[in-house]
Design goal:
6 helices; 45% helix
């Protein structure tokens, strides 16, 4: 299995779509699992987003991965949530901060959420975690 991670707006979903055109591989987003199975433990008012129940989401993902005979591409914004032995490779998506800012602004991110995500990219937080 492989993990594709990165700050929101760096192109994870786009890259996964391109990979799927070339390779027959199953893909799953942790955010999609959380939405499909309603695995949230609250709502972050400051960042204006639901808070996943990490344990339950990991359990659901582990069930999918262990039941699969073929490799999975897993999409999430960071790598630090997962046991190291789950993935044969981890790919971290990055992008220019000006491009990232425009993408996140187009998504309607609040000023605080925009700032936090841009800072995350500037300081290479996700890259360092991977």
């Amino acid at each position: 299995h492989f993990l594709i991670c990165g700050t929101p707006g760096t192109g994870k979903s786009t890259v996964i779509e391109e990979i799927r055109k070339q390779v027959d591989i199953s893909c799953v987003s942790l955010n999609d699992i959380a939405k499909e199975e309603n695995l949230f433990e609250g709502y972050d008012e400051r960042l204006e987003c639901p808070v996943m129940d990490n344990e339950k989401v990991l359990d659901a993902l582990e069930d999918r991965l262990s039941d699969s005979e073929t490799p999975y591409l897993v999409e999430y914004h960071s790598a630090d949530l997962f046991p190291e032995d789950w993935f044969a490779g981890v790919f971290v998506m990055r992008t220019d901060n000006e491009i990232l800012y425009k993408r996140l602004a187009q998504r309607g991110y609040s000023a605080e959420k925009l700032s936090e995500n841009i800072q995350c990219e500037i300081f290479r937080v996700i890259l360092d975690q991977a």
